[in-house]
Amino acid sequence: MTAQRTTHRLRVGIDVGGTFTDAVAVDATTLELIGQVKVPTSHHHPDGVAHGIVEALDRLLTEVGRAPEDVAFLAHGTTQATNALLEGDVAPVGLLGIGSGPSAVLTRRLAGLAKLELTPGRTLPLHYAHVPDAADTAEVRAAIDRVRAAGSEVVVATEPFSVDSPEGEQAVADQARAAGLPVTAAHEITSLYGLNKRTRTAVVNAAILPRMLATADLVDESVVKAGVRAPLMVMRCDGGVMSLDEMRRRPLLTVLSGPAAGVAGALMQERVSEGVFLETGGTSTDISVIHRGKVAVRHAVILGRGSYLPALDVRTVGVGGGSMVRVSGGKVVAAGPRSAHIAGLPYACFAEPGDLADARLAALRPMPGDPDDYAVIDAAGGRFAVTMTCAANALGRVPEGDFARADPAVAALALAPLAEALGTDVAGAATAVLDAGAGQVREVVDRMIRDYRLDRDAVVLVGGGGGAASVTPHLAAAAGLTGRIARNSEVISPIGVALALVREQIERIIPGATQEQILGVRNDAELAVVEQGAAPGAVEVEVTVDPQTNTVRAIATGATELRTQDRAHRADEAERLRAAAASLKVPPAQVDVLAGTPAHTVYGTVRRRRLRRPLHPVRVIDADGVVRLHAADARVATTTVAEASGVLAELVRETTSYGDGGVRAPALRLLLGSRIADLSGVLDAEPLLALARSELRSRTGDEPVIAVLEVRA
Description:
Elements: E1 10-16, E2 20-27, E3 33-40, H1 49-64, E4 71-78, H2 80-87, E5 93-98, H3 102-108, E6 117-119, E7 122-123, E8 126-131, H4 137-149, E9 154-158, H5 167-178, E10 183-185, H6 186-189, H7 195-225, E11 232-235, E12 241-243, H8 244-249, H9 257-268, E13 275-280, E14 285-291, E15 294-295, E16 297-302, E17 305-312, E18 315-317, E19 323-328, E20 331-339, H10 340-343, E21 360-364, E22 374-379, E23 382-385, H11 388-394, H12 408-422, H13 426-451, E24 460-464, H14 472-479, E25 482-485, H15 492-499, E26 502-509, H16 515-531, E27 540-546, E28 551-558, H17 573-584, E29 592-596, E30 600-604, E31 607-609, E32 612-615, E33 618-622, E34 627-631, E35 635-640, H18 641-655, E36 657-659, E37 662-664, E38 667-672, E39 675-678, H19 685-696, E40 704-710
Parallel strand pairs: 1-4, 4-11, 5-8, 5-9, 9-10, 13-24, 24-25
Antiparallel strand pairs: 1-2, 2-3, 6-7, 11-12, 13-14, 14-15, 14-18, 16-17, 19-20, 21-22, 22-23, 26-28, 27-28, 29-30, 30-33, 31-32, 33-34, 35-40, 36-37, 38-39, 38-40
Helix pairs in contact: 1-7, 9-15, 11-12, 11-13, 12-13, 13-14, 16-19, 18-19
């Protein structure tokens, strides 16, 4: 009899950066980090970045003492597509416009996409050819031959209204593939109307296609040769992962995926429901939002123009752990944007105490054209930069074991000359430095909290990256918000890659969408992630219907395997109550238990307002004591699957609002088993109830269902 396997399998995440490739191994059951390695990114190797990925994987498995067959999940994130666009390293594109009559006028204008600027003075290499009739095989072949003779290495097929009738684009694409050329059909990139934007997105996708295909093949072959049998996944720019085959079709989805990996780590490892993630490196801080347990996504701007690429909404501020201090008029006026790295100087707080002897404050201009007020220290050991990290260490803000930890006593020595110049003590000087840097970040954080209407009572600031301690703790204290540094913050990006869920977003413009059409988009999204390896029973689909643009959007997410987290700790009743009370900002005695399932407990309180209806804020806490859902004012009801259809219909009727903006159904969320089904994106009652029924259809009649409903203003 074979002995039962007791060693948990691994989830491996690999993040390919500009300088280093980081790899982590995460226990597939407990989701705890068990190993990490760092290798130089292999840009100049004959196999390119694929070599570094495989080298990192081999070293990682050696370090944790495991075999390739122990890998249950393998994903990598890469900046290759982003770098290709930034550096202008793209393939010449042959754009085939389809149509006759008025359609021909529209498509011929697309030749102007050749004016898209890649880098200053360099435009997108694009050659246009027209195809009046896609059914004319000889005509299509001649057009393909023309763009190929002009130097095109990849083809894009585009036609007006192809999202409704894709046959023309498909016919041209088939001919291009038969001719041995990689191809992108515009309708395969997005189902949204807008010929120019749809084609522009497809052209950028095609421009990076050959290079990304070559890398995908090399990585795939190398991983298989290494003995890993788990399917290889790739990080998307919206915080999820996709299959390698999907990446081969839409490599553009990997653009801007670097910041997405970090926020995915905050979402999955830190289990943030409502918050702002700040990934701080040496030079800058990337800021992104998690709202109601989901990353904030919008259509990205690429090459200075709008696109249909759904990407993380990330905003970057030029303040990081290595940002240098600027001093003028006897006060700190800014931190950054220049960093110690750019100036070629070591951080003062990492010097030996003897090297800081006889220290005096000086100023320099790091780069030509910069102000000459960047503060440095000239001391016995040479010249050193005064940075945000120096200030954070001087105040004891950098915890033991942190990547940026320095001896606070040495950091105080480093800040002493600045303190003297400012006429204050070391603590005052350090605070002034952090105020200047964190203040710039706070402006953007406050704006994003407003933009996404985050619930400030529930917002958590989570810091990641090697410079996290230089920004997040001080910013949280200044803003009066809860803040913390993520566990293993310096490798939060590869952890995010390892823990990310398979994701797919489908958007369609459907005027007056019926229940059947909305359910159809939902089911297409669910099928797409299942086809990429997600376990069917664990797929969650969020549907949004925008009545102003007639856009039906479905976002499906799912794990590649069913995971049961075997954590050593589960929060008891008292811990969950304390977590709810802390989030609600009231004493535990004022918190009521409203409902519960084995996976979640629903807590609420009452906020009375003078001459106005009282509010009923709600928090849903999971078994680990983490807030998974919060509502500023909600109604909670418990029923069963068998009774849910009628009960939900009555609840929706009672909480539907009427006003100048029209009729609006409530924001509905259902607690089902271990899941929270978010149906809040649908404003009309009938489609909302149809989606609710679809969530319940595979469950037994006696299973409990908890409904959380928020009345819309």
